[in-house]
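Hi support team,

I submitted a single chain yesterday and got back a structure, but I'm not sure I'm reading the token output correctly. Could someone confirm the output below corresponds to the sequence I sent? I've pasted both exactly as they appear in my results page.

Thanks,
R.
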Amino acid sequence: MQTGLKQQLSQWIAKRFQVDHSKILRQKDVLVFIYKQGFLYLILILITFIAGINYANNLILGFCFLISAILCISFYLTFKQLHGLYIDVVMPEVGQVDQALILKLLFKQPVSAARYLRIQWQNQEQLIYLDQTQHSFELPFVGEKRGLYEFGAVKIYSTYPLGLVRAWTYLYPKHKVWVAPKAYDWQKEHKNKPTSAQDSLDEFKELRGFQQGDSYQNVAWKQVARGQGFLIKMFEAQANHQHLEIDYQQIPAQSHEEKLSFMMGLIEQCEQLGDEYALILPHARLESGQGQAQLIKAKLLLAQA
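Hi R., thanks for writing in. Yes, this is the structure output for that exact sequence:
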């Protein structure tokens, strides 16, 4: 029963505080309540009030009303730390497994005012101080598996100035981000394995181990599939800049995820070497290209495969 109510409450909060690209924190968006030390402060108010009544002591009652007024002012000041704050949420285009997904928050305020805020996300917390009209902050998230990634709750709160009251709000990014597979580090996997070109001497002039700068178009896939390491087919004429077609059907791996990881590794190597590459998947194709735009398109295709 309690689990069901808690789940319904979480769904209601996520729906209420959902944010698309930007949001202005208005009165309905900011929650305010007594914070940890505030409960001890309430006990102090209660004790002084009872003592003032019992002993008919106006001095004690006056002190009680004074500290009560301080608590009331704290509610207002803490609420103002969040109220009227404009927040832009900038989503990453695409992510990759085990690499940081950077969610960027851009805080804006009409006039420069001091705001002491804390941001909680996942298991992390960060204190930020705003004193300019604009301030940006980056939140790193980590996608653990390929596919659509949904950002969890981002909690922004303040206990300024006395720590007696807490004002807080939530941000639930509406949009999800595609996460590409982790790149397969095949160089590390095969660098210590012995290589042999004996099986293909009749087919090629020469086979040798892969070296930095080699073209992936000349990879000897049969030898790779046999576990002999990454071998390169050597010819008399080699071009300086190569074009590679990364074909899903020719990747020497068993499972679907392994194939995608292997392809991601080849894409990253092509980008490092400045080689153009095309991507061929069972139900999609990316034409030849190179650069940041090409890399983003390739990651999206592998994430959605």
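A quick pointer for reading it: Helices lie at 2-16, 36-54, 58-82, 186-190, 221-225, 256-273, 292-304. Let us know if anything else looks off.

Best,
Support desk
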